[in-house]
Amino acid sequence: MSEIEHEGTPHATRRQVIVGAALLGAGAAVGGGLLTGCGDDDSGGDGATTERQETLYLAGWQWGPPPSWNPCSPTASFPVQGRQMQLIYESLFMFNLLDSQLEPQLGASFEQEAVGITVKMQTDAKWRDGEPVTAADVVYTWDLGQRNKDVYWSASWEYLESVTEVDEHTVLFTFKPDNVNPGMVKTAMCETWILPKHLWEDYEQANPKIMEFANDNPVGSGPYTVKSGDAQQLIFERNDDYWGKGVRGKLPGPKRIVHPIFKDNAAGDLAFERGEVDVMQQFTPQIWKMWQDKKKPVGTWFTEPPYYIPGGMPMLVPNTSKPGLSNPKVRRALAFSIDYARIAEQAMSKYSDPVNSSLILPKGSDAQYFDEANVAEHGWKYDPEQAKKILEEELGATKDSDGVYVLPDGTKLGGWKLQTPTGWTDWQTAIQVVAESAKKVGFGIELDYPQANQLTPNVQTGNFDLVLWYIGAQTTAATPWQRYRDVMDKRGTLPIGQNSYYNYGRFEHPEVPALLDAATTATGDELKKLLKQLDTIFMQNAPMIPLMYRPLDFFEYNESVWSGFPNEKDPSAPPTFSGAGMLWLYEISAK
Questions:
Q1: Torsions phi, psi of 441, nearest 5?
Q2: Residue ranges of domains in the chain
Q3: Kind plus residue range of the DSSP H or E element containing 188
């Protein structure tokens, strides 16, 4: 199977489910009229703007007809699913990957105090039907999440005592006194679509199972409306009465956004290379050849490896309840045995630097906390001889007749099954490298590729030996704190056999809870000190092993028709579709 298996809609759904838990058929014809071609449509005379010059073609998010336009649904269509583009629905703020700032959206400003966060809203914001967006809509949205535990923003109530209306355009988010966590609340404010109370109250009354409501006529506050959606393409039209024009001084450049539905990645790559798609979220192997060899006007954030800003780090997760893997020195020896440069080259197509042993990303908004000296002192890197030294000199292990190490108590460091879902080809390549590297040292690892829907419950219940999996904490307003929580916090994690949505390996360390609690409200040098302590514990115990860096989105553009996309030389907006990545729509223009 192709990369489409987890870079398209399944990828977004998987990410939404994990983030929501950790925190946080036929086409639905909404209107008439389809754009049938991707090439130039010469609809005017000399000097006239063509239809193609008014239309942005975007791909990589949707791989079938839209099942629903309901943002509560985990299978909602692009762009109404959580953590996607704010075309239809909008959040209070937008997270900026470049500097960790919260950019205004429906919220104009916020003030953080000891008891909570007060949000001042945009006073001119309106829904598409002309009704004003008010504090009552925000309160209703959060209350809906409290009543319906399966919607993705419901987990924010772990950190909230209440969400209340102060006045028509002011909302108070009150922290839960025994679980104060401003970062997680800010993340929820950036990732929760605000819904119109005057419509959704009736929708809830008519649809007791609100997640099954189709929402065929989505009324949002965003700059675009849904014109149509079927098995061929999704079409969104700009709302020229969009309230945000008064705030930003202009409307987004494209009058229309079209998302073609491709059968696979190869079809999307071909259309992109031809300039029939302008901007894309898709894993495209060796994309640099499009501009280096084929001289296409294609770009990514960086012109050299790793090409994209990292936003997350998939993890090799050892089950710390298993014999052998319960020993931190065994886990560290395993970490030293892995060829990370080969994973970056072969599995990630050079889209990742060889990964460090830290839980802090060395590029992007995390970089301010990355401590290279601490990594050098306490971390690991690819060093098979050091792996053998730990096993033999520190643990007294000896090799059995099959070349697999055995500890003095008889525990064999093998017979372990290493799993990742079938069809996730880059991850499959990564664990092949892990297994080959580890076997050369003296670990016994067998590979297995179950279906994702079979493996997911096993990961959550702790029914595995080793697994390559996401942690929920991709870069947000709550990271890097949230990564340490997801990897090392035993609190909130249920025993083996019961579902847990972070710390899948059930790691526990006595110093972690207090450090995590202190870090939730720390700032400046104090926060750096606490993160360094957490990172040291992580590297000394290896509860998980980062294998690669991945961008939040594979943001790639073709400037055949539209120009002005952000990159390292012109950082006008983050290279994402979610969050503040929305802002590049205001910077691009047709040639």
A1: -75, -40
A2: 4-80+213-281+554-590, 93-200, 310-551
A3: helix 182-191
Farthest CA pair distance, the chain: 84
Dig out the tokens for 574 from the structure. 């983050």
The C-alpha atoms of residue 505 and residue 306 are separated, in whole angstroms, by: 29
Whether CATH 3.40.190.10 fits 4-80+213-281+554-590: yes
Domain 93-200, classified CATH 3.50.7.10, yes or no: no
Please write the tens of the pLDDT for every residue from 283-315. Answer: 999 999 999 999 999 999 999 999 999 999 999
- Phi then psi for residue 124, to 5 deg, are -100, 0
Q: How many CB atoms lie within 10 A of CB 118?
A: 16
Structure tokens at 138: 């925000």
Amino acid at site 493: T
Spatial CB neighbours of 142, under 8 Å, sequence gap ≥ 6: 153, 156, 157, 160, 163, 192
Please name the amino acid found at residue 379.
G
DSSP letter (8 states) at residue 42: -
Detail the DSSP E strand segments found in 250-299: 256-260, 279-281, 298-299
212 closest CA partner among 69, 16, 401: 69
pLDDT in tens, 451-480: 998 999 999 999 999 999 988 768 899 999
* Total residues found in the chain within this entry: 591
In the three-class reduction of DSSP (H, G, I as helix; E, B as strand; rest coil), residue 17 is classed as helix
Which residue has tokens 């945000």?
244
Asked whether the CA dihedral 436, 442, 443, 446 is positive or negative, the reply is positive
**Which CATH number is 310-551's, of 3.90.830.10, 3.40.50.11930, 3.40.50.150, 3.10.105.10?**
3.10.105.10
Query: What single DSSP character describes residue 570?
Result: B
Per residue in 66-88, pLDDT tens? 999 999 998 899 999 988 999 99
- Cα–Cα distance measured from residue 488 to residue 548, given in angstroms and rounded to the nearest whole number: 19
What is the value of pTM for the model shown?
A: 0.88
User: Is residue 129 within 8 Å of 137, Cβ to Cβ?
Assistant: no
Tell me which residue of 557, 90, 15 sits closest to 301, measured CA to CA: 557
pLDDT attached to residue 35: 45
CA separation for the pair 512, 568 (Å, rounded): 37
Q: What is the DSSP letter of 192?
A: P
Long-range CB contacts (within 8 A, 24+) of 369-373: 369/480, 369/527, 369/528, 369/531, 371/528, 371/532, 371/535
- Per-residue pLDDT tens for 559-584? 999 999 999 999 999 999 999 999 99
363 contacts 351 by C-beta, under 8 angstroms: no
Q: Which of 235, 227, 239 is nearest to 129 (CA)?
A: 239
Q: Extract the tokens encoding 591.
A: 């040639």
Assess whether pLDDT exceeds 90 at residue 244: yes
Q: Which residue in 365, 482, 471 sits closest to 97, CA to CA?
A: 365
